[in-house]
Here is the input.
Amino acid sequence: MGELWPVPDVLAHLAGRWRVERTVRDLAGGDEGRFEGTTLFSALPEGGLLHEESGTFVWQGVARPAERTLRFLPGSSPGTADVRFADGRPFHDLDLTCGHHIADHPCAADLYRGEFTVLDADHWRTVWRVGGPAKDLVLTTDYVREG
Here is the structure.
């Protein structure tokens, strides 16, 4: 690991089950949380992948179940994805053909900037930097392919 790993087709690459470990750092307050769980990318009937993440999030010593659902649809060019929230709202684009991608998502007064890096065939990472009037966070997620 350490070099970028180009992915010619992001949807084909992500399909399957991944073990997920995420740290959430509040840069303003100094708190740090942790999420551990799994993400399943399964085929959608209309094309693309359904991203279903579930696990446990620990924040300030309190553990809670956590989950989220996204849709990874075919993107505007071959091998890319159009990532959407479960309700269909746009989230960000994703192009890993060079093994690395940066995407922005404005959310009210905050800006989410995601950096996606494929480390090898079975490992990838996202780092989201969230900045705005109410948030100053860094979320780092490591994915390891299962099975």
About this structure: Residues 8 and 97 are 5 Å apart (CA to CA). The chain has a mean pLDDT of 96. Residues 10-14 form the longest helix (5 residues). The helical segments are 10-14.
